[in-house]
Every structure is written in structure tokens, then in C-alpha cells.
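stage 2 :: seqdesign
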């Protein structure tokens, strides 16, 4: 059957595939538009499989935040080149993936994200076919309904931070002292990359391993056990100041700890503000905190 130019253009506009690919798909589908879309999607999936071994170390951290700051999402979307990451098509992919996560709500889990028949993987496969690079969505973070969510995006979308605060009333959340604190803490996380929200959040096995390492360093020192114990605890203090957010020196004023900064803001606000959790996503990293 004859395939009209308008049908070819319509299919191209929807799928992003080339004109001849669209014409051939419509001919193969005997003019059935939906079947032609399916044919092109299948070709996109085949293209994705061929490119699956290629490195996706570029990309963007997508972010969304509801107006009342009660929910927020960060998502890492990867591609092969910074050139593609800057294109409108790739940035639209990031927006669409964010919308998929928001729509799924509590159903948005790691298994949901990686389901090859799910919305995100289907969308990524189609984008691979359209843009010609391997792409991936390795992780996301969604906070909702447990506190005030703040965000900070650094380096044009290469690093994204999400942090959740407790102890806020709507009125306190609007005060300048608090919004300044949110920005400062988020920038702290972006710059200093802490791993834990508190000392209590450190897994027991991690602390045990650190203590074992420090003791091994002292085993030939000839020092008494009680002295070694004190040295080990002192070294743990250095570990806390590197990896535990409240123990870190403030990037704004290294003479203060982050805990001091939070305490000062709480005093100014007249209410105890606490940080319940945070995430720092950097494009190309494999670890989500």
C-alpha cells in the first residue's frame, strides 16, 4: 500500500527514527501506525543490546521538588558523551524519567527501575535508538512525606544533593535562617561527601574494621593496652570528622563543625532542627549513599 509523507512525518516526530526507517516500518506494518511504532521500538531495543557494553560515564542528575518541599527526587541518567548530555532530547529524557518516578510514587523501587518491561527501561531503550548512544538510569533517590526536603545541584547537573530535615513547622520552613541552613548543609554534602548522617548510622562491622586497622598499626609500638585503646578512639575521631556529616568541619567556617552550624540555626529558629537522611549523586559514580 502507498505510505503518505504525512504518516512518515508523524511516525518520525513520535519516535525520532529516521525518515527511511519510518517509511520501511510503515510498509512492513501495512500502514498500521501502532504496529509501525512497535517495529521501530523493537529495532531500538536491538540497538540498545548492541551498545550495552559501552561506557556511560557522562550524563546528568535530574531533580524535582514539590512546592511545599515535602517530596523530592534525584535520578542519575547516563550517556556516553557530554555532547549528547547537553542535547534537548537527552534533557527531555531526564524530565520524562523523573515524571515516571513521580507517577509511580511508593512503587518506585530499585526492582521497578531495572524492570526491562517497566516504563523507565522502555523509555531508555527508545532513547538509545533515537540518539545512537548507550544510556542507563542506574539509580534514583525519592524522599516523600517524612520531612522538609532540600536540594542542591552542582556543576551544571553533574552532582545532586538531597537532604531531609525534621522538626519544622510550615512557618519555620519559610524563615531565612532555615533556608540558609538548607543551602549550607546541601553544599556541605556536595563538597565534603559525607557517608553517614550520624555516628549511630555507621554499621557496627564498619567500626569494628576501623578499630582493627588502627590496632594493627599499633601492635609493634610496645605501648600498654589502655594507651592503645585511647589512641584507637582518637583515630576514630578523625574518621568521624571525615565521614559523619555532623562531625565534619563546616566548609563555610572550618572552626565550626556541621553540628555547631545546625545548633546555631536551631537556637535562632527556637526549635531543634535535625537531619534525618541525605543523598549525594555524582554522575558516573557507582555508590548511592
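stage 2 :: out
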Amino acid at each position: 500500500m502507498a505510505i503518505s509523507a504525512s504518516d512518515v512525518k508523524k511516525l518520525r516526530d513520535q519516535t525520532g527514527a529516521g525518515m527511511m526507517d519510518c517509511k520501511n516500518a510503515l510498509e512492513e506494518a501495512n500502514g498500521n501506525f501502532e504496529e509501525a511504532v512497535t517495529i521501530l521500538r523493537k529495532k531500538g531495543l536491538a540497538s540498545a543490546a548492541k551498545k550495552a557494553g559501552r561506557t556511560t560515564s557522562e550524563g546528568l542528575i535530574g531533580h524535582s521538588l514539590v512546592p511545599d518541599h515535602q517530596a523530592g527526587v534525584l535520578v542519575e541518567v547516563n550517556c556516553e558523551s557530554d555532547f549528547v548530555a547537553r542535547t534537548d532530547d537527552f534533557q527531555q529524557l531526564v524530565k520524562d524519567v523523573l515524571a515516571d518516578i513521580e507517577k509511580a510514587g511508593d512503587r518506585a523501587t530499585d526492582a521497578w527501575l531495572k524492570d526491562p518491561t517497566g516504563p523507565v527501561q522502555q523509555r531508555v531503550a527508545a532513547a538509545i535508538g533515537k540518539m545512537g548512544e548507550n544510556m542507563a538510569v542506574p539509580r534514583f533517590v525519592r524522599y516523600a512525606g517524612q520531612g522538609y526536603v532540600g536540594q542542591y545541584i552542582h556543576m551544571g547537573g553533574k552532582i545532586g544533593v538531597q537532604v531531609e530535615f525534621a522538626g519544622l513547622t510550615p512557618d519555620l520552613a519559610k524563615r531565612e535562617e532555615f533556608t540558609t541552613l538548607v543551602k549550607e548543609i546541601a553544599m556541605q554534602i556536595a563538597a565534603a561527601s559525607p557517608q553517614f548522617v550520624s555516628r549511630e548510622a555507621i554499621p557496627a562491622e564498619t567500626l569494628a574494621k576501623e578499630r582493627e586497622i588502627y590496632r594493627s598499626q599499633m601492635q609493634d609500638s610496645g605501648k600498654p593496652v589502655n594507651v592503645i585503646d585511647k589512641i584507637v578512639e582518637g583515630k576514630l575521631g578523625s574518621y568521624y570528622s571525615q565521614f559523619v556529616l555532623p562531625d565534619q568541619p563546616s566548609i563555610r567556617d572550618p572552626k565550626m563543625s556541621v553540628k555547631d552550624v545546625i545548633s546555631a540555626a536551631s537556637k535562632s529558629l527556637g526549635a531543634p532542627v535535625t537531619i534525618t537522611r541525605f543523598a549525594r549523586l555524582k554522575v558516573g559514580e557507582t555508590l548511592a549513599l
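stage 3 :: structure notes
- The mean pLDDT is 90.
- DSSP finds twelve helices and six strands in the chain.
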